[in-house]
Specification:
Elements lengths: L8 H12 L7 H8 L5 H49 L4 H31 L16 H11 L3 H12 L6 H13 L3 H8 L11 H14 L3 H10 L3 H11 L2
């Protein structure tokens, strides 16, 4: 059995930087010297690669699951139509038939809305890559410990660390932004919106555009297409306009 791989935040940051800059001239030799000082560096590089690949694979798998949900939904819709046709042809009470049809088509409409919202969300959502792990900033050590959890998709652990910090800085845009994205990555759109919906807290920072994007995706996941559309329209950008066009095609 292979021994567990334990990476320090500094090692993770160095390896991730090296992976991102492998093709950059002039930086490779310096990075290689630092990498060679890391114990068991080859295994650790493969581990970081695997984590990054699993993030991409997770996104692909969510799209595949959504496709299967859509196919299953189509089959259920077809079954409902067959039942409705049999009821209409029978000699039962017509008011009862009408009531059943109302229920069936209500369920169909709700399923269609849910399927559409999940489809758009799965096609569009990709967690923010996070901030570089600059652990030399000692007064922000707790934040970057959470960022390491976040980069490894340990969103619950990251949330626990950041929520402690948020108690003393409730309007901090960075904490609110990454808490919102973390909850959305866990599929909890309502909780995500608690951190992302108040756009005014992001207006002066670097997360202004991204906060709008993720807040709109959270609303879409909830089936709140009109609210998402108004938000995207209020804060236009190339990415937001593209998502708005998808909503307008519904």
């Amino acid at each position: 059995m292979n021994a567990p791989i334990n990476l320090s935040p500094q090692e993770w940051d160095l390896i991730e930087t090296w992976l991102d800059q492998q093709g950059a001239q002039g930086k490779a030799s310096l990075l290689n010297e630092k990498l060679n000082q890391i114990p068991d560096v080859d295994r650790k590089i493969e581990h970081v690669k695997k984590v990054r690949e699993e993030i991409e694979d997770s996104i692909r798998q969510s799209k595949i699951r959504e496709f299967h949900k859509h196919v299953l939904s189509d089959k259920k819709d077809s079954g409902m139509k067959n039942i409705a046709n049999k009821l209409i042809k029978s000699n039962g009470v017509w008011y009862a038939v009408a009531a059943v049809l109302v229920v069936f088509f209500g369920i169909f409409w709700m399923m269609k809305i849910k399927s559409t919202s999940e489809k758009i969300f799965a096609e569009s959502f990709n967690p923010d890559v996070g901030l570089p792990l600059k652990m030399d900033i000692t007064n922000a050590h707790a934040f970057y410990e959470g960022m390491l959890d976040y980069k490894q998709e340990n969103y619950k652990d990251a949330i626990e660390k950041w929520e402690v910090l948020l108690k003393t800085k409730p309007e901090n845009d960075t904490l609110n932004y990454f808490l919102g994205v973390s909850h959305l990555a866990l599929g909890n759109a309502p909780k995500s919106l608690e951190y992302l919906e108040h756009q005014e807290r992001f207006h002066q920072g670097i997360f202004k555009e991204d906060a709008v994007w993720y807040a709109a995706l959270a609303k879409i996941k909830e089936g709140k297409f009109e609210e998402a559309g108004r938000l995207l329209q209020k804060y236009p950008s190339a990415r937001n306009t593209n998502l708005l066009n998808k909503l307008n095609e519904l």
